[in-house]
């Protein structure tokens, strides 16, 4: 498995938009597959946030993760976020998500980010708790109960 930026594999943008739309499209008002695809245009970066990291195995994209700004409008002072961690069903349970999160943390740290945040529907922290993320608070955001977590990257 290798990691590349969406900016280096732009032809994967529609597939990624489809995955995101199928996974989270029902909780974002007035969204469509086309809007998900258009939003990904902002993530076609390699050396600045926002960006998307792709996990690629044997030439096939099997997962993705985003580094973004201000994911949750209710937390305007929390700037840098990890989000959009997605792994295709056949690759789940094979540590792809963990590897993507670790890669995203490394890239964020390299870009000068000292603190990352995320939101997860796994109210026990799930995958992220096992990777050293700390729960901050549980909130209902866009009608979904989520746990907001953080991780210091300067350790």
UniProtKB/TrEMBL annotation:
Xref: Pfam families: Acetyltransf_1
Keywords (A to Z) from UniProt: Acyltransferase, Transferase
Protein's name in the database: N-acetyltransferase domain-containing protein
Ranges where the N-acetyltransferase domain occurs: 11-154
Keyword flag Cell cycle: no
């Amino acid at each position: 498995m290798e990691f590349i930026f969406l900016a280096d594999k732009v032809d994967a943008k529609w597939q990624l938009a489809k995955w995101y739309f199928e996974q989270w499209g029902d909780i974002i008002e007035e969204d469509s597959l086309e809007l998900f695809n258009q939003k990904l245009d902002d993530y076609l970066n390699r050396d600045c946030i926002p960006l998307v990291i792709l996990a690629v195995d044997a030439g096939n994209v099997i997962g993705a993760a985003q580094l973004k700004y201000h994911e949750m409008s209710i937390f305007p002072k929390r700037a840098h976020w990890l989000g959009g961690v997605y792994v295709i069903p056949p690759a789940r349970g094979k540590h792809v998500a963990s590897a993507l999160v670790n890669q995203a943390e490394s890239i964020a740290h390299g870009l000068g980010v000292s603190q990352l945040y995320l939101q997860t529907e796994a109210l026990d922290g799930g995958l992220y708790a096992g990777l050293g993320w700390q729960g901050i608070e549980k909130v209902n955001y866009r009608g979904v109960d989520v746990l907001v977590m953080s991780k210091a990257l300067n350790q």
